[in-house]
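Incident log entry.

Two folding requests arrived from the same account within the same minute. Monitoring flagged them as a possible duplicate submission, but the sequences differ. Recording both here for audit purposes.

Request one:
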Amino acid sequence: MKYISTRGAAPALGFEDVVLTGLASDGGLYVPETLPQFSREEIASWAGLSYRDLALKVISPFVAGAIPEADLKRIIDTSYDSFRHEAIAPLVQTGHNEWVLELFQGPTLAFKDFALQFLGHLLDYILAKRHQKVVVLGATSGDTGSAAIEGCRRCENVDIFILHPHQRVSDVQRRQMTTVLEANVHNIALRGNFDDCQNLVKASFADQSFLPAGRQLVAVNSINWARIMAQIVYYFYAALALGAPHRKVSFSVPTGNFGDIFAGYLAQRMGLPIEQLVIATNSNDILHRCISGNDHSKKPLLHSLSPSMDIMVSSNFERMLFDLYDRDGSQIRQLMDEFKTSGRLTLAPEPLRKAQSLFSSYRLSDEETIAVIRDVFETTEYLLDPHTAIGVQAGRQTRVDSSTPMICLATAHPAKFPEAVRQAGQSQDPALPHHMQDLFGREERCQVLDDDLSQLKTFIQGNIRT
């Protein structure tokens, strides 16, 4: 399996190199040269498989030739040992043919654990084999950082630096990162928003000359292909549990960076019978505006009750554009240059038509989000976090066929967002799981920096282990 850049000017790479590279040398994102295809009969034969065994079936074609199957199975099995629920990704019914897929059963209570536990063990394997050390650099709007740190904290060949927007993540999200005190873990609170964090990460990847000889940056954000690949699995798992491939299913996905729903789109292209893919956004609604009105333009970033979606530049949308424009890298390069210069991107008529045929979209305000949390709890006694609430309501508002199961991806545990839960009328904050009961008593370690590339590079230089 080879991987190519969305901008068409970088060399094709094998799987291991793609995991270690992140952004392509031409500024694009790597995607598989071809997608594996699974027949209806093959998908049907997977009914009843455990999550780990299904992951091996789905991931193997993407890794073919790079990692022996026995080693890949061991990486997958170990990656999900830290999940609290035996099902790994259990389904809970919240209405008629309406389901919530609980993707918060991992160690940091967010869906990012599915990909980042896997990526951490994958890096351990690849780096040990290559006798190589790397620097992991990432930006987070809340959940990616803690999941990446948890995945990499014990990696002997990794120093990890995570940027989060100063005072713009929840207390639980911050403490999940800043209370990890291993010597290879470094948290940076940037005076800015998530897009500022992401811009510094991209600039660092573009010029890595500040690193010591022999070191390179590795991405843990969803620009890293391995993350998208790992997330494809739970679409198959949920669909099989509800009768696929003998019946269609639909998914509503709370998304800011487009990575999670892009994984669903890939699952559909690989043969999973998905009727609807719903893009669910908060007030930072560039994806909804693009799909519904061809308005992919930057606007001031708003601080919301669903901070993990407080993103205005959706990095993974470039991967989608690549397919919408028939994989023409030169057109994508032109589009992304236009967006960088003007802050606006306009889809041509045919790519827009394709996008609107593939996706529905919906946006919710904070007030509407709180109302959904309250309503679902009153009718089911099931407590949603604000991101999941947005997904549930988006699915309800855009649903085209009530006979098709609508599955909302529950991206985080409600305990991570007590402010939203309190505003929805809950008298007590939701309890943290047992392994996090002492979170607010743990020591914190974090460096606050200005939105300045030279400051960031100096900090990284001074903290890389020799």
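Request two (distinct sequence, not a duplicate):
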Amino acid sequence: MQYKVSIEAPCPLACSRTWRDACGVFGIYAPGQDVARLAYFGIFALQHRGQESAGIAVGDGRSLECKKEMGLVTQVFDEATLAQLQGDVALGHVRYSTTGSEMIENAQPMLGEHRSGPFAIAHNGNLINAKALRDKMAARGMRFETTSDTEVIVQLIAQSGADSIEEAVADMMSQAKGAYSLGIVTPTKLLAVRDPNGVRPLAIGRYNEGSWAIASETCALNTINASFVREVEPGEIVILDKDGLNSIQALAPARKAVCIFEFIYFARPDSHIYGKSVYMSRVQMGHMLAQQAPAEADMVIGIPETGIPHAIGFAQVSGIPFGEGFIKNRYIHRTFIAPGQKLRELGVRMKLRPLRESIAGKRLVVVDDSIVRGTTTGPEIELLREAGAREVHLRINCPPLKWPCFYGIDTSARSELIGSRLTVPEICEHVGADSLAYLNIKNLITAVGLPKSNFCTACFDNQYPIPIPPDVKVTKFDLETQPAEAGSE
């Protein structure tokens, strides 16, 4: 083998969250630069996309060295660790598990060996045919060391008979189905790969002359002062090396289907997707929601952090003053909120504290990005009541979530989605609000400003752009009855 890997023990405080984020990928090809440190800055900017584990792989022209651990970026890397990672090309990853359990073996980048040499992969997404591919390879005697679908991708590339890594990746793409935005690093080059539907974002940036970067979000490119060039196209392999930027269209693009929740929740507000500002899209969602579902109130507040741009937009159109209702403890990271409903409710109190002096005696419009299970919304409203809020009118900047995601977001089974089990009035009563309204899907799409055909909205309307195999679908479609599709409220 031509690579080394350092793997440390898991963090004992790792946990689950109501709405698990997509992972974050960052790569840099910059000969003569401190690429490990640049990758560190890149994945630090993407920390919101995954707080379970972090890793960086570096190529020095001959071999790969990889360091990864459970925990946050600042917990995994320090000056001494970064100094050991020397080379011209690097690939970083932050992870929240959607397939594969929370254990160090599933941390990324994940290493492999092709006939052309060693490589490492960082993956954002989820394969819907991972089990079928895994079973097929296992029947041929292949042994798997992890429970992650990323290892399936690694093995498809490793077993390819192609002469080059690019051809091996193309072979993999012809077999893999689902969502995958990949960074792939070898000792000498960086590859960026996107599935034919482009479900998860992946951007290319120019760092300086002869240097390039890739990132799940443009905010990471901004962090290292790289200029945005373009997005990786669906079905494309982009090669970044001494010859500059080259491209292979490995698969014909299918209907674009970027996850709409990138605009609602996942992406940082200072990122751009499809040329659209995430922040301004969220403000526009607030505008549309204020027109669609007005309320008589004294103040508009947002649930930190992602609800704030939505709330600002609502306030601008409604004419109701925007104010702060909650103070967020910024030292409470998602990774350290313990699992289980009782402890999750305590976690809400640790993370958010109401501003009594701001909200006592007032009628509030409380704006949030979404309600998934409904397990944290109720405690948040209870906190506002305890602080003296006279009325709480809840406004949500997307339709009810009724259908699970199979493309890289852990929304679990339909029975756990409150929008699948209860009507809007029932949800309102369940969480203890005085009124509740959701932004409908038409207004959501209008706010983003791109055609609906550009997005995956399956969590709202059951219209999956990539067909889900029956054996995979049954793992999450566990309701005895099928309620009306979302987006009709």
